[in-house]
Amino acid sequence: MLSLVYRSAWDVVLEERPVPDRIKDNQVLVRIRATGICGTDLGIISGKYHAKPSTILGHESAGEVVRVGPDVTALRPGDRVVIDPTYYCGQCAMCRTGRQNHCVRKGETETGVSSDGTFTDYYVTEDRFLYKLADHVSYEEATMTEPLSCMLTGIDQMRLMPNFRAVILGAGPIGMLYSYALASKGVSGSIVEISEHRLQIATSIAPERWNVYPSMEDALTAMSPDNRQVDIIVDTTGIMATQAISALAHGGYLMLVGLRDGESTFNPKEIVDRSLKIIGSIDSLGTFATAHYMIERKVVPVGKLITHRFPLTEYQEAFRALGCDLQKRALTSSSTAVKVILHSGA
């Protein structure tokens, strides 16, 4: 089976790997049909996020059941499914204290990072990580379930009020999904995007009662001209935390979701005195089923976010659309796409 394999930074290649011929009693063999490119994939390729060499990349996937183990009763060959890639053992200290997204086995089981992923033709997983798709949900739309579930995990860490005002920094897939997830809770807000191309796309697909601006200053002035402060700031860029603190209202939330090394500074006294909350959030924690439901019921119109699609063999063009140029070994903020989907073989 054709697979996109990570060797080292800027060195990813298509390789033929054997189709899995053995599955355990509780496992399922899935024929991958569509996989979304995630910011984690870009971080791995550019050397900004560690992955195990010789690992097949990819984790945002949907496909068709090919074979099931003898203990699998809820699925059968031909079923269309979406894959929850966040494996957890259920037995370690993290899992038993409600932190399954930080399972101690993550270093060997993280799909597309430390364990073979889904930029390939076939993938094996346990039945507990598969969810059936309704007939009207496409494979492409289903790939958005995992990233949406990550946004919902972040939102679950905030005590939201419907009259809260939010600013989201970055109009990539994460930023746009956060806007829709917050909008589903009644929160209005603004999206900030410096890329003119993405700004235009975001303007056309933003949720109702949400606006798009080229700078945080413009967004704050429009939303809160008196004090230029809001209740929630979601930083998907990984570089705006310091500037965001002063733009938070008392009791406000700063959500950090950008995986980027760097340093930010803040005054601890200000955090305490103004009851500010700084939250980091990664992966999905008990929210995959909710994301699955929201996509099925069209609460979040994820199809609007998918701007480009390529066959797996054209992976270089797909990554280039997201500002990741493998030949030039360059990752830039310039992007002509929001969400890009790779389709495995015919």
Overview of the molecule:
Belongs to the zinc-containing alcohol dehydrogenase family. InterPro entries: ADH-like_N, ADH_Zn_CS, ER, Glu_dehyd_C, GroES-like_sf, NAD(P)-bd_dom_sf. Its cofactor is Zn(2+). One of its GO terms (cellular component) is cytoplasm. The protein is of the alpha/beta class and 346 residues long. It contains eleven helices and 18 strands. It folds into two domains: 2-149 and 284-343, Medium-chain alcohol dehydrogenases, catalytic domain (Quinone Oxidoreductase, Chain A, domain 1, Alpha-Beta Complex), CATH 3.90.180.10; 158-280, Rossmann fold (3-Layer(aba) Sandwich). α4 crosses α5 and α4 (145-155) packs across α10. 24% of the residues lie in helices and 27% in strands. It has helices spanning 39-45, 106-109, 139-142, 145-155, 173-183, 196-205, 216-223, 241-245, 268-273, 288-296, 315-321; strands at 2-8, 11-16, 27-36, 55-56, 60-68, 80-83, 122-126, 130-132, 165-169, 188-192, 210-213, 230-235, 248-256, 277-280, 306-311, 324-325, 330-331, 339-343. The model has no long low-confidence stretch (mean pLDDT 96). Strands 3, 5, 6, 7, 8, 15 and 18 form a seven-stranded mixed β-sheet that branches. The protein has a six-stranded parallel β-sheet with strand order 11-10-9-12-13-14, with helices on both faces. A three-stranded antiparallel β-sheet has the order 2-1-4, with no helix packed on it.
